[in-house]
Amino acid sequence: MPTTTAPADLYRHSLRLLLAKDIPGWVGLWADDGVMEFPFAPPGRPERLEGREAIAAYMRDYPDHIDLHDFPDVRIHESTAPGTIVVEMRGVGRLVATGGPFDMTYIAVVTVQDGRFTSYRDYWNPLAVQTPTMDFTGSSTR
Questions:
Q1: Euclidean distance between CA atoms 27 and 52, whole angstroms
Q2: Taking the CB of residue 114, how many other CB atoms lie within 10 A of it?
Q3: pLDDT digits (tens, 9 = 90+) for 87-109
């Protein structure tokens, strides 16, 4: 993506990459020193990933755990902070291990600089998935 890509456009592009299961492409949208945070991470799950390599390791096996089909409700709000958007969205699909439905609502606060994600705070609800042993990404990163 060009460095002039608006944060909302970069985010929409990232969703298309996730639906295409193009994890390397999605990771390629990140700054080398980008930070991904999960403020509501349950015990044993990572709360903070620092750097593109850590994010890549976390996301590498994502399609093996969650088969995303759509993001039917995406609302992107511009903030007063430069390059920062707030996203409300819903992801639907299926859990690969069980074949059961996946339906998660998210709020994310995302910052973009020079056409790359630099910060992504993902406020997903761990209570929405009641299987305590489900590891969405296969990652043991903390």
A1: 7
A2: 11
A3: 999 999 999 999 999 999 999 99
